[in-house]
Amino acid sequence: MVIKHIVEGYESFSDFIQKFDSGGQLVHIFFSGSKEGPDGQSWCDDCVRAWPVIEKELEKADPNSHFIYVEVGDRLTWKDPNCSFRKDPKTKLMVLPTIVRWKGPQKLEGDQCEKPELVSMLFNDED
C-alpha cells in the first residue's frame, strides 16, 4: 500500500519536505484547498471532484511509493497573490488541484486531476 502523509499549510510542508527521505522511492504530492466545515471537504470544488479519482488510482500505484496530501490553506490564503505555495520555486503552484511527481517534470493541474487515465500515468509511468 502506498505510504500516505498529510500536511497542512506552507510552514508544515516546508519542514516536512526538508526532513523527508523517500529512500529513492517515487513521491507524488497532491496540493488541495484545506478541508473545512462539518462535511470535512475542501472549499475547492475542483479538488473535491478530483479526490475520488486520485484515491482510486492510488490503489493501483506502486505500494512502495509515497503520496503526500498537502492542504494549502483556506480560500483567502490561496487567492492571495503572495501565497507562499505560489512563490516557492520548488512548488510554483498556480492551480488547485495539482498533483506532481516530486523532483520530476510530471504535473497534472485542474481538471486533468479528474481524468483516471492521466492520474494513472502520473502514478505508474517510469518517465
Automatic annotation (TrEMBL):
InterPro entries: Thioredoxin-like_sf (IPR036249), TXNDC17-like (IPR045108), TXNDC17_dom (IPR010357). Residues 7-125 form the Thioredoxin domain. SUPFAM superfamilies: Thioredoxin-like (SSF52833). It holds the Pfam family TXD17-like_Trx. Belongs to the thioredoxin family. This is Thioredoxin domain-containing protein 17.
